[in-house]
Amino acid sequence: MNLKNFSETGKKRRRNSEMRRKDEFWMMKVLHLAERGRGRTSPNPMVGAILIRDGLRVGEGYHQRAGAPHAEILAIQKAGEWARGSTLYINLEPCIHYGRTPPCVPAIIESGIRRVVIGMEDPNPLVQGGGIKALKEAGLQVEVGILEEECRRLNESFSKYILKREPFVMLKIAVTLDGRIATRTGASQWISHEESRRFVHRLRDQVDGVLVGIGTILKDDPLLTTRLPGGRDPFRIILDSELRIPENARVFGSDPGKVVLVTTPGAPKEKLERLAEKVGRILLCDSREGKVDLKELLPKLGEMEMMSLLVEGGSRVYGDFFDKRLIDKVFLFLSPKWLGDPLAPGIFGGRGEEELEKALSLKEVTLRRIGEDLLVVGYPEKD
Length: 383
Hints:
The protein has helices spanning 3-35, 71-79, 105-111, 130-137, 148-154, 156-164, 194-206, 214-220, 269-276, 294-303, 315-323; strands spanning 48-53, 56-62, 87-92, 115-120, 141-144, 168-176, 209-213, 235-239, 259-263, 281-284, 287-288, 291-292, 308-311, 329-335, 362-370, 373-380. It is an alpha/beta fold.
């Protein structure tokens, strides 16, 4: 290679490196924009879009709710004629199919956008790769995979739902330093501190459903609502194989239409008929070892377009999800308290594992201090 070619190669690398940094900068802005739709777009993904022309932001938008205009359409509308010759940054591949709204790819092409930078392909089989292909065939420059991992994590619930038609399952657990979730008398309010409880209410505001077992209802009589200004209550799902729930339980007191009772065919029919007039829905699932069959339940929740599910207890429910390897993400609040009681209940009430090699391992673990508690977040490794 002569000196001139070497110099040109170096300049090209620097230009590519500079372009990559700019693309990553704007994609991070897109992710922050898309995040504003969290908890409101289900069963659609969170999507943000930004239009850049001559280094200036000329249009932006984010998907606000299912049925509302998509992010790229809002950005194009805001930019108007300034969209022509611009670069579109978007965290998810634009759609090419009709759903609740028209496809976005034709609008992108017609707007005169010159370049499209995409964070990740759409996992939806109706879209995957098709939007990218159509944009390229129309002569647009297309870059894919900018901050791809961050884009995947943002829409982790959507990715599972669209492929398996089941909700993304998250476990929320508050535990003492010696691994207890309550005293031997069942008292568990409050193991975690106030800051952690506020965090949990933000989680409730963002998910489609909150699930507990009948033991939690009988012991704590919780509302399972989101106590935040302007917060949104999720569906409240109660596992109750024998229909032991009191008919005056507090969970029925606020928006009973969003209460989902999950029981088995052996539940008492008269009580079942009375409660059917009181709650939003009753789901019947087979019984496995006296418990609701969770593997049968998850697709039923998927049919209700529940994309995300927060499991809040108790230990038998945690144990059943653990034993069946149905956990997608764990939020564990470690409180600096010590009960020192071997008879106090631990986290999991399932069979567990007898061999260390079969233990469930978490990956991508992060630690965060919330008030006096330590929040551990991780993803269970799948077989």
